[in-house]
Amino acid sequence: MKIFTYIKKDSSRVIKKNFQKIGALSLWKHLIYELLNFNIYIDTDSEEVIEECLKDPKLKNVIAYKRDERFINMENNPQNKLSPALLMVENFLDKFVEDPNEIIVLTHVTSPFLKKESIESALKYLDLGYEFIHSIHSIQDFAWLGDTFHPLNFNPKVVQRTQDVEKIHFSKGAFFIFTKKNFKKYKNRFGKNNFYYPLNHLEAVEIDTKDDLEFARILYEGIKNA
């Protein structure tokens, strides 16, 4: 099994997001340190990440390599609205994965509270015949869609109990699990037979905005001082 992730040196919503500190560690190191028992590969445009992986003795199982220029150009092209993420996965598979049946865990360092035990637990669903496993977070509450506030899972004309409404499931980038063969088959992180693995509230935290970052810092201090 191989862990694969990508780390950008900058981001649009939070400046240098992956290098912002949560506690004493940069954001990107929280998840990498959690997964040190696995072989980890990082696609990055950051020289800092590459240098840290070479000099930090804890990161001996980590291979960080320079992002292909074509992917950087895609990300920097204002006319391009699509992420090169799937192309970067395919590039990683072509370069570093020989066995078509090898298990790949695509993860994101923006999930600083994800635990290795959750990944290990999710892996068993491949043995049950699922082609892809995707982390989600489920909320059972009244939900509206978009700026028009279209009710998704309830009738606003009646008063329902919260426990009676249907759950809303949110996609989380904490992990996608698949084999090289299945990714090549679908050219995607999803196929025809997917298992959606639920994360708890803590592990579902993702850092996308400044508010997310501040919330994660508060959670981290609370956990540390508990």
- Largest sheet entry: 7 strands, mixed
The CATH architecture would be Alpha-Beta Complex
Kindly report how far apart the N and C termini lie. 34 Å
Give, in spatial order, the strands making up the sheet with the most strands. 5-4-1-6-10-7-11
Oligomer: single chain
Structural class: alpha/beta
Molecular structure report:
The protein is α/β, with parallel strands linked by helices and 226 residues long. The chain has a single domain (2-139, 169-225), classed as Spore Coat Polysaccharide Biosynthesis Protein SpsA, Chain A (Alpha-Beta Complex), CATH 3.90.550. It has helices spanning 27-34, 47-55, 69-76, 85-96, 116-127, 180-186, 210-225, and strands spanning 2-7, 21-22, 25-26, 39-44, 62-66, 103-107, 132-139, 144-145, 150-151, 168-179, 194-198. The strands form three sheets. Strands 5-4-1-6-10-7-11 form a seven-stranded mixed β-sheet, with helices on both faces. β8 (144-145) and β9 (150-151) form a beta hairpin. The longest helix is centred in the C-terminal third of the chain and has 16 residues, at 210-225. It is globular and about 60 Å long. It starts with a strand and ends with a helix. The mean pLDDT is 95.
Concise account of the structure shown:
The chain has 226 residues and is α/β, with parallel strands linked by helices.
